[in-house]
Amino acid sequence: MKRICVYLGSNPGNRPEYAEITRRLGRELAARGLGLVYGGSSVGLMGRLADTCLDAGGEVIGVIPKLLKEKEIAHTGLTESHVVNSMHERKRLMAELADAFIALPGGLGTLDEFFEALTWNQLGYHTKPCGLLDVSGYYACLTDHMDRMVGEGFLLPAHRSMVMTSPDPADLLDKFEQYDPPRLDKWIELKKGH
Ligand code: AMP
After folding, report:
1. Is the CB of 111 under 6 A from ligand 1?
2. CATH class of the region 3-192
3. Whose CA is nearest to atom 8 of ligand 1?
4. Boundaries of every domain in the chain
5. Is 19 a residue whose pLDDT tops 60?
């Protein structure tokens, strides 16, 4: 792995733990010589992550759509910045540049981007590891819901297990090193021969 794409809130959230884990991840990436790919903004947790990585001597690549350059206040001190034409281009380029995906606490944008990376994995478009950095149980309801998808027959256990979860950045990155992607189709009914 050379670069990790991190999806995270363009707001800071209400708890200090969110910024703390963000900074821990930033320092860990820099310490391991892993580049950061992210949405290019200077606000919320996004800005804190980029600043921490840069301060620790890490490489930071931002990808921001033209329309959001002002609203999300594009970070001006990154190692590399890409201004793209659309959200779709942003997601595609971020995914291409990275070897793995992490979601820190965030809102709808964070989930949209993380789930897209996951669903591409499920369809076999790529085999890059995906993980949630969970702090203060922020993602507990989401992981419970994915278990429910398995219980209700909408998600295979092997695809559920693609989502690695940890409260610790170093532990999550270690899990990524061990990742063995599932190599099976997602269509449960076809497997049963219906
Ligand atoms: P949020 O988690 O909602 O604070 O958003 C985090 C980041 O995701 C921000 O940079 C948003 O601009 C970005 N974002 C929101 N919606 C999308 C989308 N549909 N595709 C790509 N990025 C998005």
Report:
1. no
2. alpha beta
3. 109
4. 3-192
5. yes
